[in-house]
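Anyone opening a protein record will find just a pair of labelled lines. A complete record is shown below as an example:
=====
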Amino acid sequence: MLAVCERQRRLFGVLAWALFAAVLPAPAWAESVTVHIDQAQLLKVPDRVATVVIGNPMIADATLQSGGILVVTGKGYGATNLMALDRDGRVILSDSVQVLGPSGPDLVVIYKGDARESYSCAPQCQPRTTLGDSTAYFNGTLAQTGSRSAQSHAGGGGSAAR
């Protein structure tokens, strides 16, 4: 009889803990973080977060700032996961990150057969480097941007008083 009472008490304890865990509030964290490619989004995370891990850094990047601010940047199309750990390596947050294509009222996409070109049109249209554009267009736009950047650094990057 004593053994039956002991088993019932243990079962009651297990059920009580299961019920308690079921009604605990979930962490204050979105079901999924959505960010557009080449854009950043700020998220508030608990101050005790010490490390942030991104499953696929080719899709997204995350940088932890002081004050519990997490900067998530879309780098490539697709989905990956994000985990935030405390100093003891315990997972505080675990969620998915969805990176969507570019958007906005100034984005114009032109299709020439199967070749794609993207432009930022605000107010005049200028080429923009966007993943998914045709290789020749993408590389040409990227080369111009890189050349311009190199020229600005070679010249000192600013105006000098003479």
In short: Residues 14-30 have pLDDT under 50 and may be disordered. The CA atoms of residues 156 and 162 lie 14 Å apart. The first strand starts at residue 32 and ends at 36.
